[in-house]
Design a protein that fits this description.
The protein is about 20% helix and about 25% strand. It is α+β, with helices and mostly antiparallel strands and about 110 residues long. A hairpin with a 5-residue loop joins strand 1 and strand 2.
């Protein structure tokens, strides 16, 4: 398997599913490539902003893991929007175990 399926949900209930997200890329890269609204990624994936903030669906939280110290600091920049399942999509590397993952794009 060289690609997996990922779904990006929006707060209005709309969803965008990508069936061929390439393994090894970040969730943010896939979102930008497919024009997912709300994933601005101003820093280009350097974990230097929080403009690719997503909420990982509960069933995927363990597989995705927890943010490291640097990502936690960036998430503190959006503390008013931060939830226990908050992650920066630039820090989620796609692997086979994430096939079918669903995330919700955080409000900008």
């Amino acid at each position: 398997m060289s690609s997996i399926k990922v779904t990006f949900a929006q707060s209005d209930g709309s969803e965008q599913t990508i069936d061929d997200a390439e393994l090894g890329r970040s969730l943010m890269e896939v979102a930008r490539e497919h024009g997912v609204p709300g994933i601005l990624a101003d820093c280009g994936g350097g974990c230097a902003c929080a403009t690719c903030h997503v909420y990982v669906d509960e069933q995927w939280r363990e597989a995705v893991g927890t943010p490291d110290e640097i990502e936690n600091e960036m998430l503190d920049m959006v503390s008013d929007l931060r939830e226990p399942n908050s992650r920066l999509s630039c820090q989620i590397k796609l692997k086979a175990e994430l096939d079918g993952i669903r995330v919700t794009v955080a409000p900008i």
